[in-house]
Amino acid sequence: MMLRHILRTICLGACLLWSRPSSAQQTFVGFQTGDTLLAICNADQEARIYCAGYIIGIEEILFTGNAINGFRACSLPNEGPTSHHLEDVVLTYLQNHSATRRLTATGLVAAALAQAYPCD
Q1: Where are the domains of the chain?
Q2: Concatenated DSSP letters for 39-94?
């Protein structure tokens, strides 16, 4: 299971490194809020690759037993969610929690995943 997570992280990291923004407006560096992440995730294909990598990076932290902003999430071994499902969970959470989208994207993604994949 750990090897699967490591390989997936390496592959996504490589995709992010080799993808080049087509304009200066698509340079995704720095502080992200829930609003900016939602906009990026609903943009073009290149931006959605960044979105998937951002969400999966947080998923990797949480599903390996670490907490983010006090949020914990768990997944059963060999039954982890797909990247598309993770994106659906996070985007639905962001759409349903518009009042908190001004907060950090990291904490909001962690909250969404903790709600969808609670540790019993």
Answers
A1: 2-20+32-116
A2: HHHTS-HHHHHHHHHHHHHHHHHHHTT--BTTB-----TT-PPPHHHHHHHHHHHH
Average pLDDT over residues 65-71: 93
Tens digits of per-residue pLDDT, 34-61?
999 999 999 988 888 999 999 999 999 9
> If DSSP codes are grouped into helix, strand and coil, which group holds residue 15?
helix
Q: 2-20+32-116 domain in CATH 2.60.120?
A: no
How many CB atoms lie under 10 A from the CB of residue 111? 22
Are 110 and 62 in contact by the 8 Å Cβ rule? The answer is yes
Contacts of 97 (CB under 8 A, 6+ apart): 34, 108
Nearest CA to 46 out of 74, 73, 65, 26 is that of: 26
Q: Nearest Cα to 49, choosing from 82, 94, 15, 3?
A: 15
